[in-house]
Amino acid sequence: MSSSREATSDGWLPGDHCDRDWIWDREVETESPAASRARAEVAWEEQRRHLAEGSAFYRRKLGEAGVGSTGVALADLDRLPFTTKDELKRAIDEEPPFGSNLSVAPERVKRVYQTSGSTGVPSVLALTAEDVRTWTAIGTRTYYATGIHDHHSVLSTFAAGPFVAGHTHFVLSRIGARSVPVAPGDTDRVLFGLRAGLADTLLGTPSFAQYLANRLEQEAGDTRGLALAHVVTGGEPGGGIPAVRDHIQDVLGVTVNEVMGIGDVAPSLFGECPAQQGMHFCGTGYLWPELVDPDSRAPIAIEAGAVGELAYTSLVREAMPVVRFLSADIVRIEGSACGCGRTSFRMRCIGRRDDMFIVRGVNVYPTAILAIVGEFRPQVTGRARVIRRADAVSVDPPVPVEVEVPDGAEFESGLAARIEAAVRARLIFRCRVELVRESSFGDSGYKTRLTVSRQ
Ligand SMILES: [Zn+2]
């Protein structure tokens, strides 16, 4: 009886924590794709009724598209129009504060997050009590998949609010882990916590983990004595880029896994298991994912090797459901079957649609440049960004790239030329590298913009 509260070993294979199925959600996470689809079809029937009754926004949108939401089965989802971030923003502006997509009575809204709003004006996300539980359940699958269990101590640098990343704190509580919250980017407090042995696991952005690794590397030998064994990265791509991951793992002596979510849909939606072969989809039964061509919007089968943009349809959302919401996240599908027992697909995020640029007709994501730049450590920090002219999607070679180098440290005179040659050899286009000292690179080191527009 009491065995379910005893600490497990660090083992993570299904048999090692079979008494924790209530956290692991084993039945759903190991079911066949056909069973997952059947589960989604049942949930969609209820959700589409809810949309038709509750959402003025979708009643109008689906009506205008000539496909009233009634009668459209999950199999026919591609008859429904996509939803964009801009449309959701306009729906809020029409009837503030919650907008015309609020599908429940306002008094049922029990939690409100804000989004940063790319145009500078914050927007809101409303959740009912049940929506809060849903997000926590999806997040629990996500973080449990990374190997965070109830006997772990987790130092989280994800802020408590106002952004959705704060939901992670509910998730850690549900898993039963020890939680040690620290404000984003508060390096001194992170180092204090780690040196004091308060945590064996760190949650943060890959930029921050990389920064921390660089700093400890400079203070040579200082990682000894840290209890840290596990770093889980999220909030931006990077934890899955080999040059970034290997550096963090080697310097800190840890295992790196990454997670990913999306504000309007679920803040923690993909979690990478210890097999480190990409992030598992953890929204089975709650969300229906699709992969589409980022340009033509044509559907793409979710199978190993496929590259496309993820779109999501909510299956159980009460307050602000979405239909075929275009995420702008471009991913590569890595496969599905996995040694951990999970059957959902695995993927890596290549980048945001907005970060993509075109060089001589070829689509390029800045993460490809990061993967090369990272190999020049320790002469570089690992951070880099592409400079574009305002709103220009096409960039003529040589592509301007700024590469961050540590303050004070020496670097060889041909460093920029060697990076340029490596990019040319691997990505088949010319770039012009400018080395920028850490103190003048800008951005906090907590999150890095991968492309910057300048006139
Ligand atoms: Zn797995």
Key descriptive features of the protein:
single chain; about 450 residues; Rossmann fold; GMP Synthetase, Chain A, domain 3; twelve-stranded mixed sheet; four-stranded mixed sheet; 13 helices; 20 strands; about 30% helix
What do these coordinates show?
This protein has 455 residues and is an alpha/beta fold. The protein has 2 domains: 27-352, 3-Layer(aba) Sandwich (Rossmann fold), CATH 3.40.50; 356-453, GMP Synthetase, Chain A, domain 3 (2-Layer Sandwich). It is built from 13 helices and 20 strands. The strands form 4 sheets. Strands 4-3-5-6-7-8-9-14-13-12-10-11 form a 12-stranded mixed β-sheet, sandwiched between helices. Strand 5, helix 9 and strand 6 form a beta-alpha-beta unit. Helix 11 (366-373) crosses helix 12. The longest helix has 22 residues, at 33-54. Residues 273, 275, 280, 338, 340, 342 line the site of zinc ion.
Question: What's the topology here?
Answer:
Blueprint: H1 21-24, H2 26-29, H3 33-54, H4 56-64, H5 85-94, E1 109-115, E2 123-128, H6 129-146, E3 153-156, H7 168-175, E4 178-181, H8 187-195, E5 201-204, H9 206-218, E6 230-233, H10 242-252, E7 255-262, E8 266-272, E9 279-281, E10 287-292, E11 299-300, E12 307-314, E13 325-335, E14 346-352, E15 357-359, E16 362-364, H11 366-373, E17 384-388, E18 399-405, H12 415-427, E19 431-437, H13 438-441, E20 451-453
Parallel strand pairs: 3-4, 3-5, 5-6, 6-7, 17-20, 18-19
Antiparallel strand pairs: 1-2, 7-8, 8-9, 9-14, 10-11, 10-12, 12-13, 13-14, 15-16, 17-18
